[in-house]
Amino acid sequence: MIKRKPKPWFHKQSGNWKVQLGTKQINLGSDEAAAWDEYNRLMAASAGPEKNPNYDLQYYFEARHAEGGALWPNWLNETPYVVTPVIAP
């Protein structure tokens, strides 16, 4: 299931813009432009730390032949992927 990105909405009863982040409803204020600025600030802050440029490559093979196919390595016997260290340029 794909998680939806939260979007601000206008709450008529309170006259304020709000956004739902997790289980919290956050009041963004009554001005639409300022609310979108605050929303963008909140989303940037919740994006987490910057990605580490040092990363690994993960892959698996599937070999097929006339009688069928098989994953390598066999996921019933071992981890069905291989992680190869990669040095970022």
TrEMBL record:
- State the protein's name: Uncharacterized protein
- Species in which this protein is naturally found: Blastopirellula marina DSM 3645
